Amino acid sequence: MLKARPVTLLKQSAISLTLVAATITSVQASGSLSIESWRSDDANIWSDVILPAFNQSHPDIKVHFAPTPPAEYNSALQAKLQAGTAGDLITCRPFDTSLSLYQNGHLENLAGLDGLNEFSDVSKSAWVTDDGKEQFCLPLASVIHGFIYNKAIFKELNLKVPATQDEFYKVLDTIKSESRYIPLSMGTADQWEAATMGFQNVGPNFWKGEDGRKALITGEGKLTDKAYLETWQELAKWKDYLGRGYQAQKYSDSQNLFTLERAAIYPAGSWDIQTFNDQAEFEFGAFPPPVPKAGDACYISDHTDIGIGINANSDNKEAAKALLSWMASAEFANLFANAVPGFFPLSNHKVTINDPVAQEFVSWRDQCNSTIRNSYQILSRGTPNLENALWNVSAQVLNGTMSPEAAAKKAQDGLQAWYAPQQ
Questions:
Q1: Which among 62, 97, 341, 413 is placed 20 to 30 Å from 86, CA to CA?
Q2: For residue 140, which of 343, 322, 321 has the smallest C-alpha distance?
Q3: Residue 294 domain boundaries
Q4: pTM of structure
Q5: Residue 304, exposed/middle/buried by CB under 10 A (0-12, 13-18, 19+)?
Q6: Element (H or E) spanning 344, and its range?
Q7: Residue 224's domain is classified under what CATH number?
Q8: Residue 64, number of CB atoms within 10 A of its CB
Q9: Confidence bin at 30 (pLDDT 50/70/90)
Q10: Residue (of 11, 18, 72, 12) closest to 40 by Cα position
Q11: Are 238 and 285 in a shared domain?
């Protein structure tokens, strides 16, 4: 009896260990996940469309999409990470903001993640370390810059979509002189639109996209170069076509002026498509930034905008990896592209986009050279931050309180104050 008892205990221990292992496996294959994001506009789409599709193949993983208003996201996320209360998955801004999170230990290294091979190096570049060796966010989507216009107003005034800058200003002059409509719906109160939908929208046609952007990083190009001066000169012309009191006009005001059919053209990001689909009661279209003159190569800002990573302190990493791997699939790419029109998946999967305006935006990739916003990679790591500097000087140029030459000098002085290749 005494000799038999240890054997029984060993068997019981073996059974217990088997049950524990099974329990662990079950926990790893399931879980409850929370996603941090700034895309509060997409909350219903995630809860009603995207996550139910994921649960078709992963019924044991429950996911909660928990967005924060865009302007508050960065600071709120930092506070949650410091307090240990952040969600399991972190929606990633491109380049330096997320790189800093990774370097501070807040994001998991995604080495070996199933599906990561479905993305090109260019798509992944916004969420890798400077040496290109460590991937910390899965690429989700890019956004494209251009102009959205009211088709009925264009028909009423017998206007054609402009392809060159001369044509663009003739259209604006006609709208201003022959109608009650505001030619361009944009304000400067929030500042960021002046840089994002102004400077970064039309600028790539002047600085030749990636060539100019990379030249700033190497120090071969300066923000006082002709290309940047011409970009701010272009913005300075816009002030004559903006609405009354545009200096106090916020982003939401600009959207409202367009959806209420008080403005004919809206300097846009493709992310605005969804808002106008919901609110506008008229047909609208889009055109790319007009080139300086006929025959010039065109460039578009096709900006790697959204990635998603795993909170390094998550207790549900296996479930989080399962969700990310599904996000690398063709199923997700097609679902996301059509559920959130204007956000274009970055995977290599062929996607069919049903929304006509989103399809118009993405078709420019076949006609034009793509680039990203020139302040996002490396150049906003120091103080003064180049991205914020561009907001400020671009808004002042539009307000008429700063000349293009002064804007170029201020931006360049700020960059070379801390960035060695520019010194």
A1: 341
A2: 343
A3: 144-300+372-422
A4: 0.85
A5: buried
A6: strand 344-345
A7: 3.40.190.10
A8: 13
A9: low
A10: 72
A11: yes
